[in-house]
Each structure stands twice: as structure tokens, then as C-alpha cells.
Design goal:
Layout lengths: L8 E4 L7 E3 L4 H11 L4 E2 L10 E5 L7 E4 L20 H15 L8 E4 L8 E7 L5 E5 L8 H13 L6 E5 L6 H7 L1 E10 L2 E10 L5 E4 L4 E3 L2 E3 L3 H7 L38 E2 L6 E4 L5 E5 L4 E10 L10 E6 L12 E11 L4 E10 L14 H4 L4 H23 L4 H14 L5 H29 L5 H20 L3 H15 L7 H16 L23 H22 L4 E2 H7 L8 H11 L14 E2 L9 H7 L8 H19 L3
Parallel strand pairs: 8-9, 9-10, 19-21, 22-23
Antiparallel strand pairs: 1-2, 1-3, 3-4, 4-5, 6-7, 7-8, 10-11, 11-12, 13-14, 15-20, 16-18, 16-20, 17-18, 18-19, 20-21
Protein name: Competence protein CoiA family protein
Organism: Actinomadura sediminis
């Protein structure tokens, strides 16, 4: 009888093996994995809680690739393995990678233990213990929930691991476990998880503090020091939550009369440590405009809890998303809001996309400019009235100045360049009389109007620019394209690109009738330049021996060979809603990747050269070790003709939106 379950993990070499293997979700990677490891055999391992029987691969066109038990006639396949998903072998990956990581740093690893009910059919692994012979223990808790007695049981477990010696014990917790006892003891907690990188699952270490999003780092970026485990985000976590020290015990106070115990107030939803779903963003770069005066209660499935929803519109904080509709989800109800006015979000703040619109998660919302109180001020004594008249007069001056600035800004939209400069000087002279919030608002309005006037001025100059003579423009462009082809035949690809760039400048001066044919010729020469061998590209005669200097350079040849593999890894990361680093790309490929920025930028450009113009760039998923934007991505986006904001404050937000579009595009492919 056929096995209807989709088993995603197995072990190699035998039932009692500790070598895990996971089936990739995409079919090309699954076929590559099968060809590489099929000779070793796939088994439903005992350390996975399986039956120990041999498995076969199922890579079809309808269902996702998976393992399956081999049918034995009409006998019903009985296997009491509790978990079959891609995370069911993570304890074996963690055991393998932590041991190799510790040995790479010169540490001696003792006898590692897999805790729980494994090996055995139907068993579950609750954690991994990695003792270090020179002192220290790494304890991974996957399913160890200590319940309401967490502090007492955790202390007892620490004493058992210490074994009567004074040594450092570093705990790493899986996602979803209660960590209040850890926060109370040291203010932060280390997290651990596994993510797909190509055909393998890679271990990541996270640093989490109460009420904040987990900050993840690759295992290779962490270190074992004399003080214990170190991550790139540990210093910030310790600074935010200093470790509590036990104070010396005080002498017992005299007994007092017992009082009735008052009911303890229940902590608010905002004070409870909850992980917000989605991609973290900086709240200062995102302003919203509510469309209602108060929120409504709702149950959010992505958050997994009851929340309060508020329809909003993204304000002018995000340039490319201004005016976009969104839903704001809050842990507490929001009332007495000011519709159609800018509001700020309280951190932490995350963003994710749904099938209909954008969804924003935040801890709270408050008006950007709090309105001054309209209540009547208290009566003042005659002695203090003379010295305290300034506050209401100053508020009235600010309101009058704001009205004047608004009228000047309205005039600034409909005047020429010379008049714009005079109005700007008048507004700058009135700036000291404005409040801090009004001053920032006025500066943003002036900057936006100046950019708009600059774009209009450039547009008028282009329209008024006289067209070049048809024969002269075509002759100049043809001259530079011929020079580009000549340099290409000599192997000077850099000079060929320079000539092609000058020809592109000539293209901008052509009359409209010549645009179509000129663009076709420019694209043809560009394709020849991107191919390192002009003879094979069709420039030389078939069978002709290449001239001296036209052979492929080794670096270009290596780049061409790694581009398909890198694109495949980026597509897999996009389907898994994940990121990938250059270190992970190197581990997943058999060829060595270049380390210089020029070669890496060229690799990313070639990877996304086949991406459709209507789709986001896969290169956005390449991040640094601390999950930040790769510095090469803005250059790659501009080289491929995609707009990217050059403002440093808006770069992170725009890259975040590109990542969200990539994940949304590839989610179900």
C-alpha cells in the first residue's frame, strides 16, 4: 500500500545514523540532492523517532518533492514517527553544526547527548547537550517547557549540567518557548533555528530581549569566549537590559498584621513580550494617517492573538509608498485619534503584505503634533501674572506663523525660480518662531517643492533642447558603436563599455523617428559586450581562429559558471521567505566565489539580467551577516535600470519594501 505522508527529512547510511538530510522544496534542487546522496541510502532514522526502514524519493510534477516509505505489496505501512516536516531533523543539524563550529575555534567537544525519547519509534527529541572539555556547556532546549515552575526547574537543570564545577552554561532556546524566567535572570536569551540554504539547513543564533524582535546572526559570525557565547547583538542586548544582581539579604522584619490580599493588576498586552510577525522597520521612517477615529477588535491569525485593527494610509515618511492604503494592528485599543492627520508609531514595528494590502504591526500610535490644550488656564495672582503672560502669547504666535508659512508654501507651488528663492528666504526667516514639529514639517515641504521644481526644470530643458541633425546624430552613434565592437575584438571589454556608454548619450539626442531602430542596435551591441568571446557571439566568421587577446579571461569564465547556481539559491530563498549571505552562498556552491566588490556586483547584475521588468530583483535577498542590506544592492538596482532612492535615511525602508515584494512574488511559485 502506498504511503500518503510527505516525509521531508531522513538520515543517510543506516537507521541509527546521525547524518541528517532534508528534501528541498524545489524540484531542480531535489533532483540534484538525489543524484548526490542516493548511493548512500535514505532511512527513516531512529534518532528522528522513525521506524528505521528505507525510504524512497518522490519528485513529481504535482506534489512537492518528499520522501516516502517503500510499499511492500498490500501491507499497510505502519510508522509512528511523530513529525515529518522540514524541522523534524533540526536537532541532528544543530548537533552536527555546533560541534563543528566549536572545534573550528580550537575547543574540545565531549560526549554530546540528544535528550528526550530518542532513539526509538515515536520518540521526540527535547534538546541537545554539547559539553566542552575545557569548561562550559552549550544546552539547546527544543521542547523543554518548564511550565509554572520554570525558575526552580531551570536552576536545578543548571546545577545538573554544572556537575559540581563552576563553569559557564549557555542556553539556546527554540522559537515558541516561554522565556520569562531567562529574562528575569539575565535580561536576554539566546535563540536557535535552522533555515534552508540551498540543499542544506543552516543554523542561526538569535539574541532576544523582552518586547523586541529577535536579531538573528549566522553561526559562523558567533564566537565562544571565556565569558561564554558571543553574538554580534549581545552588547546591545546587555545595554538595554542590564543583568540583575542579587542584593544581600536583610534581617527579618518584625511580624505585621495580615492584610487582605488585593488582586494583582493584569499586565497590559503591550507589556507582554510578543513577537510581531513580518519584516522589522524603523518607526521614525514611517508615518501613517488614520481613516477612523478609533480601532475595532479583531483576531489576527498571523499574530496568533486578539488585536485591534485600524484602517490607515501611509504618509509622506515613505516616499515610494505615500498614499498607499494599509491596515494597522495594535495590541491595545486606540481611541480619540485625529483622522486625516499624520501620526507616529511606537516601536517595535513590523510590516508584512497580504493578498489585498499592506499590514503594519506596532505597539501603539500617537499624533505627530499634539494639539495645544483648549481648556481655560487657571487664574493667576497679581504678583505672578506679569511674569507668566508669555506662554499663551507664544502659542498664539506659533499658530499665526504656521498660517503664514502655509500661505507662502502655497504661493511657492505656482511661481518661477527667482520668486521661489525669495519665498524660501521668507520661510527660513520665520522658522525660529515655529514649534519643533512645525519646523520639521516646513523643511520637508520646502525640500519636496524644490525637488519638484528641479524635475520640472529638467523636463522643460529636455523639451526645449533642439534636435540634432539626423545624419550627424546617426553618424556619431554609429562611430562609437563601431569603436566598441573594435575594442571588443581586441579583448578590451572595459573600453568597449565606455564607447557603448557614449553611444547611449548620443541616443538621448536623437529625434523620435530614429528611437526604435537605434535602441535595437544599442541592445544588440550590449549583448555582444556582455558575452566575453566576440567570435562565439557572432562577430567573427565560423571556424576562424580567434585573434590574439580575444580569449576568455579566467575570472569572467568563473563568474559565468556560478551565476546559474546563485540564481537557483536565491529563488529557493525567496520561496522559503528567507535571506542568504555570501558566506552561505559559498558553502552551498562547489566553486569558489570572488571576494572583491567589482566581481560580486557583476555577479548580481548577471543573476538579475533575466528578471522581468515587472518583477522585483532577487539580489535584494543577499544580506550581510547581521541581516542588513548588502551595500552593493543600490548599485545593482541602478545598473539594471531600477530606481533606487539615494537618500541614506530612505535606503533601508525602500530595500525593505523590495524584499517584501520578492517574498510576495515567489511565495507560491
Amino acid at each position: 500500500m502506498l504511503d500518503p505522508r510527505k516525509v521531508q527529512t531522513a538520515v543517510l547510511d543506516g537507521p541509527m545514523s546521525l547524518h541528517p538530510i532534508a528534501m528541498p522544496f524545489d524540484r531542480p534542487s531535489a533532483k540534484l540532492m538525489r543524484g548526490r546522496y542516493e548511493h548512500r541510502g535514505f532511512y527513516c532514522g531512529k534518532w528522528l523517532g522513525g521506524c528505521g526502514k528505507k525510504l524512497q524519493t518522490k519528485i513529481g510534477e504535482i506534489r512537492i518533492p518528499h520522501f516516502s516509505h517503500i510499499a511492500e505489496g498490500r501491507t499497510v505501512i505502519s510508522c509512528r514517527r511523530p513529525s515529518n516536516d522540514e524541522k523534524s531533523a533540526d536537532h541532528l543539524y544543530i548537533r552536527r553544526d555546533l560541534a563543528a563550529w566549536a572545534r573550528d575555534q580550537g575547543r574540545q567537544v565531549g560526549d554530546m547527548r540528544l535528550n528526550g525519547e530518542v532513539p526509538g519509534e515515536g520518540g521526540l527529541c527535547s534538546g541537545v547537550t554539547v559539553p566542552l572539555q575545557d569548561g562550559g556547556v552549550l544546552e539547546v532546549s527544543i521542547r523543554d517547557g518548564f511550565g509554572k515552575h520554570a525558575k526552580r526547574l531551570w536552576d536545578r537543570r543548571n546545577r545538573e549540567l554544572a556537575g559540581g564545577r563552576r563553569q559557564q552554561i549557555d542556553w539556546l532556546f527554540a522559537e515558541g518557548l516561554d522565556l520569562e524566567h531567562v529574562y528575569a535572570e539575565q535580561g536576554y536569551a539566546f535563540m536557535i533555528k535552522c533555515d534552508y540554504v540551498g540543499m542544506e539547513r543552516s543554523v542561526k543564533i538569535g539574541t532576544k530581549t523582552r518586547g523586541r524582535v529577535t536579531e538573528w546572526a549566522d553561526l559562523s559570525e558567533c564566537r565562544l569566549t571565556d565569558e561564554g557565547l558571543w553574538t554580534p547583538f549581545l552588547a546591545d542586548a546587555k545595554a538595554r537590559h542590564p543583568r540583575r544582581r542579587k542584593t544581600p539579604s536583610q534581617p527579618p522584619a518584625p511580624p505585621k498584621a495580615k492584610k487582605a490580599k488585593a488582586a494583582k493588576p493584569r499586565p497590559s498586552a503591550a507589556s507582554r513580550s510578543t513577537d510581531l510577525p513580518g519584516f522589522p522597520v524603523i518607526p521614525d521612517q514611517l508615518r501613517v494617517v488614520p481613516r477612523a477615529q478609533m480601532s475595532t477588535p479583531v483576531h489576527d491569525a498571523a499574530w496568533g492573538r486578539n488585536a485591534h485593527v485600524l484602517p490607515v494610509r501611509i504618509g509622506d515618511g515613505a516616499r515610494n509608498l505615500a498614499g498607499t492604503g494599509a491596515k494597522l494592528l495594535l495590541p491595545n485599543p486606540a481611541t480619540d485619534l485625529q483622522p486625516e492627520e499624520l501620526h507616529r508609531l511606537e516601536p517595535p514595528c513590523t510590516v508584512m503584505t497580504s493578498a489585498e494590502d499592506w499590514v503594519i504591526y506596532a505597539a501603539g500610535i500617537e499624533p505627530l503634533n499634539l494639539a495645544p490644550s483648549t481648556s481655560e488656564p487657571p487664574k493667576k495672582s497679581p504678583e505672578t501674572e506679569a511674569g507668566q503672560d508669555e506662554a499663551p502669547i507664544e502659542s498664539e504666535k506659533q499658530r499665526e506663523t504656521r498660517k503664514v508659512v502655509e500661505s507662502l508654501l502655497w504661493r511657492m507651488r505656482n511661481v518661477g525660480v527667482a520668486e521661489t528663492a525669495k519665498i524660501s528666504e521668507m520661510i527660513e526667516a520665520a522658522m525660529p518662531l515655529l514649534s519643533e514639529a512645525d519646523r520639521r514639517w516646513a523643511e520637508n515641504q520646502i525640500r519636496r517643492l524644490r525637488e519638484q521644481n528641479k524635475r520640472m526644470r529638467n523636463f522643460r530643458e529636455k523639451r526645449q533642447r533642439p534636435a540634432v541633425d539626423q545624419g550627424q546624430a546617426e553618424m556619431e552613434m554609429s562611430h562609437w558603436l563601431d569603436m566598441a565592437l573594435a575594442e571588443l575584438e581586441l579583448g578590451n571589454r572595459h573600453e568597449a563599455r565606455r564607447c557603448h556608454a557614449i553611444a547611449c548619450e548620443m541616443f538621448g539626442r536623437l529625434p523620435p523617428k530614429q528611437v526604435t531602430s537605434a535602441r535595437r542596435r544599442l541592445d544588440g551591441v550590449r549583448q555582444l559586450i556582455e558575452k566575453p568571446d566576440p567570435i562565439r557571439a557572432g562577430r567573427g566568421a565560423p571556424g576562424q581562429r580567434p585573434a590574439r587577446g580575444t580569449a576568455r579571461r579566467p575570472a569572467d569564465d568563473g563568474i559565468e559558471k556560478v551565476v546559474p547556481g546563485i540564481r537557483q539559491l536565491l529563488e529557493t530563498a525567496a520561496r522559503n521567505q528567507a535571506f542568504i549571505t555570501w558566506h552561505q552562498l559559498q558553502n552551498a556552491l562547489t566553486r569558489k566565489l570572488p571576494t572583491d566588490p567589482i566581481s560580486r556586483r557583476l555577479i548580481l547584475i548577471k543573476v538579475d539580467s533575466e528578471t522581468d521588468r515587472s518583477e522585483p530583483l532577487l539580489s535584494a535577498l543577499v544580506v550581510t551577516g547581521d541581516s542588513e542590506m548588502d551595500p552593493l544592492y543600490p548599485e545593482v538596482a541602478r545598473a539594471l535600470g531600477r530606481g533606487f532612492d539615494s537618500n541614506e535615511d530612505a535606503e533601508y525602508l525602500e530595500w525593505s519594501m523590495h524584499v517584501l515584494r520578492v517574498h510576495r512574488t515567489w511565495r507560491y511559485r
